[in-house]
Amino acid sequence: MQDKSMLMIPGPTPVPESVLLSLSKHPIGHRSGDFSEIMAAVMAGLKWLHQTTNDVLILTASGTGAMEAGIINFLSAGDRVLVGCNGKFGDRWGEVCDAYSLKTERITAPWGQPLNPDDFKAALEADTAKTIKAVIITHSETSTGVINDLEAISRHVKAHGQALIIVDAVTSLGAVNVPVDEWGLDVVGSGSQKGYMIPPGLAFVSVSAKAWEAYKTATLPKFYLDLGKYRKDAAKNTTPFTPPVNLFFALKTALEMMQAEGLENIFARHHRLMQATRAAMKALNLPLYAPDHCASPAITAVAPQGVEAEKIRSLMKKRFDIALAGGQDHLKGQIFRLGHLGFVSDRDILAAVSALEVVLGELGYTNFSPGAGVAAASRVLTTA
Fold first, then answer.
1. Residue 68 lies in a domain
2. In this structure, is residue 6 part of a structural domain?
3. Contact 204, 190 (CB under 8 A)
4. Are strands 202-207 and 55-60 parallel, antiparallel or unpaired?
5. pLDDT, tens digit, for every residue of 199-250?
6. d(CA 168, CA 115)
7. What is the pLDDT of residues 166-184, one digit of tens each?
8. Is pLDDT at 15 greater than 70 in this prediction?
9. What share of the chain is helix, strand, coil (3-state, %, to 5)?
10. Is there a single domain that holds both residue 189 and residue 304?
């Protein structure tokens, strides 16, 4: 049926109607007083969401742009950095560091498993000469549905005393608790098309006072992603380059929706949706790729046996116009990923699970009792 598409992927995520209506307004001049008022409002909202008094800067970019900016503004060629790699995006940040001639040391864990904070502790404690300049971590690893223990890793970085902690919070900001000031996070990057509930196009970078000190001596090349320019203009409620004005309209509306719901309610909703999704997959005898203890509230990865992941995705789209994400790199064709972040509700989970049951039956998968997935999800949603 036309116009019934349902996004259940880790991004872009569904956009609320009020946000879509905000997008449809006539653009205004980005050097006008009206735009400055909007800019001031969204910056205040971003600080609320990040739980910080630090600068939160807005770029016209993707989440990858936010992370590249977070790396190149505070480091110099030859600097030693630790990069946590347990999925595609951790690997990507290592590649970015390599591209800028940083001395990149990867701390790894198998895909589908969390990074071990003790591995970071050991490397940082061994660095008695304080040569490690930064530790780069993906909080919610979108490729596998694993969430890493950012709080513990950050604690070890703080004990080191010199290194910055640079965080990919692209699928965790707005879905789980990321208290920037409480955890002492120096640089935090995120993107608009995830928990923020607006279309792709904006990226956000939170920057601590410690990181700004590092900025003074950093020598990696930068121009469009020079965060110093954004900080200077943000102080005047403007931007250094032409922004996507209508996305700012959307961001203001989305942040107002989030503030009305409240941080604790947002986090509780995402946790509930994760639990319901995982309970449904277990009831359908579909193996989960990430263990329960490190499951991300943003995305659930499923490794089906006895039925092909890509056939599930294809039929879900064809029969119900529900989009699921596939596996990446060596996991392509091995898993499917069901996103439950941003503008997603209990009803969406029930609809996706019931559609999945129909698809499994049509594909000849018999290792489940019809209705078991919906019943399992319903129990979680009833008791939550």
1. yes
2. no
3. yes
4. antiparallel
5. 999 999 999 999 999 999 999 999 999 999 999 999 999 999 999 999 999 9
6. 14
7. 999 999 999 999 999 999 9
8. yes
9. 45, 15, 40
10. no
Buried b (16+ CB within 10 A) or exposed e, 267-285: bebbbbbbbbbbbbbebbb
Q: From CA 188, how far away is CA 62, in angstroms rounded?
A: 14
The structural domain count of the chain equals 2
In a domain, 7, yes or no: no
The token duo for 72 is 């190149």
Indicate the residue among 240, 260, 280 that finishes a domain: 260
| pTM value surpassing 0.90 | yes
Residues 235 and 95 in one domain: yes
Query: Are 102 and 195 in a shared domain?
Result: yes
Residue linked to tokens 């005898």:
285
Round to whole Å and give the CA distance between 302 and 338: 8
pLDDT in tens, 272-329: 999 999 999 999 999 999 999 999 999 999 999 999 999 999 999 999 999 999 999 9
Backbone angles phi, psi at 250, to 5 degrees: -65, -40
Peptide bond into 12 cis (omega under 30): yes
The pLDDT of 371-378, averaged and rounded, is: 98
Question: CA 340 to CA 302: how far, in whole Å?
Answer: 13
CA distance 34 to 24: 17
